[in-house]
Design goal:
By secondary structure, the protein is α+β, with helices and mostly antiparallel strands. The chain has one domain (about 5-145): Hotdog Thioesterase (Thiol Ester Dehydrase, Chain A), CATH 3.10.129.10. The protein is built from three helices and six strands, in the order E-H-H-E-E-E-E-H-E. Strands 1, 2, 3, 4, 5 and 6 form a six-stranded mixed beta sheet that branches. A hairpin with a 3-residue loop joins strand 3 and strand 4. The longest helix is centred in the first third of the chain and has 19 residues, at about 25-45. The relative contact order is 0.21.
Length: about 150
């Protein structure tokens, strides 16, 4: 992943309870850091992220969450979390993320997370709303591949 294609960055700090018996951040915690980045990203671009939206307007589920671990994070590390939507397809969108040790620029982990938009009543995949596509397009520009729905006349 090319860090230069990311337009969003947030920060996290490693806390004591995130450390495993080896003295490094437990592998599952990296998923939490990527989720923090995704939520901050959505908030920054203007997507509505609140409990009412999640429960009543739409349902977005994570169907794939892949992590490549590069280097261990340790207690006290300040970490830059880079997040971006790299593609939007018909009913799904792809988030990518990078964790970087702030003090050295060393890459700690990379993430690909695929989300599917569901009808909140039937749980059947439904097209990603155009409003969301527009928010991402405005923020990402040419750095996101967006498939727009075909309108038949």
């Amino acid at each position: 992943m090319d860090k230069n294609s990311f337009h969003h960055k947030t920060h996290v700090h490693v806390r004591t309870y995130e450390i495993d018996w080896q003295g490094i951040v437990h592998n599952a915690i990296y998923l939490h850091y990527f989720e923090v980045g995704r939520i901050e990203y959505l908030t920054q671009i203007g997507a509505k992220v609140d409990i009412d939206t999640i429960n009543f307007d739409s349902k977005i589920v994570l169907v794939r969450n892949e992590v490549d671990y590069r280097n261990p994070a340790r207690f006290g590390d300040a970490i830059n979390v880079y997040s971006r939507v790299s593609a939007i397809k018909n009913t799904s969108f792809i988030f990518e993320g990078i964790l970087e040790r702030e003090s050295t620029g060393e890459i700690l982990a990379e993430n690909v997370a695929v989300h599917v938009w569901l009808n909140h009543k039937t749980n059947v995949p439904t097209p990603v709303p155009n409003d969301f596509r527009k928010l991402v397009q405005t923020f990402e520009g040419k750095d996101c591949i967006i498939q727009w729905p075909v309108i038949s006349v």
